Amino acid sequence: MHETLTSCSSPPTQNPTVQPHQSPLLFSSSTSRHHQTTAISSLLKSCSQPNHLKQAHALILTHGLQRHSSLLSAATLSYISLNLLHSAYLLFRTIPNPCSYLWNVTIRALANHGHLHHALRLYSSLLSSAIHRPDKFAFPFALKSCAGLSDIQKGKQIHQQSICLGCEDDLFVRAALVDMYSKCGHIDSARLVFDKMRQRDLVSWTSMISGYAHNGRNSEVLEFFHLMRCSGVRPNRVSLLSSLSASGRLGALCKGQCIHGHAIQTGFETDILVATAIVDMYAKCGSLDLARLMFDRTDEKVADKIFELEATHSGYYVLLSNIYASKSRWKDVERVRTLMAGRKVSKVQGFSLIEFHNHVHKFGVDDRSHPQAKEIYSYLEELAAPLKQNGYVPLIDFALHDIEDETKEASLFYHSERLAIAFGLINLSPGVPVRITKNLRICVDCHNAVKIISQVVSRKIIVRDMNRFHHFEDGSCSCGDYW
């Protein structure tokens, strides 16, 4: 016999001291179904710990309420609030008739937390639902998932569906379309959507500016930055980084100085990423004195200030660690790692994705978990000799370990992008471009290696990293070695 509420004379919501882990003790067989659902609903709202939520969820199953939509919906929202997204997704799939709000909240949460395939699966289910249809709240996050996966075909389908369902003109849907087309490398399509927008917010402007930057359209980057400022929209970090980078690539010192001024006005000059971009811009424009002056003002002092403001942002620690490693300052590298550990900061793990036969294959650095790992590593070993014969010299300073040079060289050769590229070269038909997506910036050594790989194997290789698209062909890259 199940345990059910012993104190059933008053609704559970009137007992604020009840905790989820105490709930099984409050049940007896005399409790009505109404009181059971009310009690569990109250418990779900009070859950602040995963184990409490799991116990409350177990009560739903124990008391035969697994078809009770309102309870399952409340449990799904609780899983989302605790960032237990996989559990939320699995539970959502069991709800008989989810409401429109729950569809949208779940798709949004999955997209925002990187569960992109799950987000698109839910979107497809919503599209085929007999009760609900995607609306202006669902489309932006379905498109965001396409952008994250560089899935242009799915993105185009969703664009067409937004037109059919009368949502294309919504500001947020259009902004998401601009972002999706930009990140998938279809910048001209993004421009067409942008030009039709009656209102343009910071997200829309930034998507166009960063999209042009990612695709090497540097003149358009500066043009759009100017138009954005004229429209009264203040630049953010992304638009400043893109515009500073474009100024450096074009050698446009005056425009770069103007953008530096905007960085000062908006308070971004002390941002370590923007400060680094300013130094890089001055150096590429040939103004080494200004680059040095900015570097001396930046260096570790700015990093220390940023650590105070964003102590858990791993990117800043990694950037400073890279600076120290390139100078062989291994004690300082270890100091940064110790600081990260003390503050419980986790370094973002790099990975590369490649799609083959409608399946996305994921690779990490020195990853041997793939079914074709043996073949992939053998292929890379065979490539080593022709790469060196064509001028490849490993940049061992970029191997962030105080180890022997030979070991550093080996560690560089098995970065995630090289594993993904090798997989593509093995499996794709001759002449088909190899397209991969990397979640971090491609390192200088891999950039040099992929240029030569494209020449050795006579294949076009397209890498989308966190900054831009790199089109490698015949030993050169579309970025001109500036990224």
UniProtKB/TrEMBL annotation:
PANTHER family on file: PENTATRICOPEPTIDE REPEAT-CONTAINING PROTEIN, REPEAT-CONTAINING PROTEIN, PUTATIVE-RELATED
Organism: Dioscorea zingiberensis
GO terms for MF: RNA binding; zinc ion binding
Domain called DYW: residue spans: 391-483
Pfam family, one: E_motif
PPR repeats: 201-235
GO BP: RNA modification
Region (Disordered): 1-28
Protein name: DYW domain-containing protein
Keywords: Repeat
